[in-house]
């Protein structure tokens, strides 16, 4: 965003100075300075718009990637817990009801 603001401000200042130079007659220094400041401000605002849009797109892509990674981690951990309970159930160390309660308890801990 900063690059867009700086580039827009510089372009605005140069356009105002070019217009002041091409104007017929003598343009006072005050008008050149104030015109340059105003042109720089307008150019900076216009230059900030693409920067804001680009920043928002990058932020959304980052959020999407983090959400995808968190979902993948959660799926892997839930699958590992399920397989561990299945192994305990097949070995006869827990009853089906106890295995279901353990899985439900782990799900509640994971989500809350």
**Major sheet characteristics:** none
Secondary-structure element sequence? Answer: HHH
**How does the helix and strand content classify structurally?**
mainly alpha
Number of strands: 0
Tell me what you see in this structure.
This protein is mainly α and 112 residues long. The protein contains three helices and no strands. The longest helix has 63 residues, at 29-91. It has helices at residues 2-22, 29-91, 96-111.
Quick summary of this structure?
With 112 residues, this protein is mostly helical. Helices cover 89% and strands 0% of the residues.
Characteristic key phrases:
mainly alpha; 112 residues
Give me the secondary-structure topology.
Blueprint: H1 2-22, H2 29-91, H3 96-111
Helix pairs in contact: 1-2, 2-3
């Amino acid at each position: 965003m900063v690059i867009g603001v700086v580039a827009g401000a510089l372009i605005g200042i140069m356009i105002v100075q070019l217009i002041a130079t091409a104007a017929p007659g003598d343009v006072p220094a005050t008008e050149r300075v104030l015109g340059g400041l105003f042109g720089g401000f307008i150019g900076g605002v216009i230059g900030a718009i693409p920067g804001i849009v680009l920043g928002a797109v990058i932020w959304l892509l980052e959020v999407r990637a983090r959400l995808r990674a968190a979902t993948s981690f959660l799926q892997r951990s839930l699958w590992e817990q399920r397989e561990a309970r299945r192994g305990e159930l097949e070995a006869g160390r827990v009853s089906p009801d106890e295995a279901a309660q353990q899985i439900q308890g782990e799900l509640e801990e994971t989500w809350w």
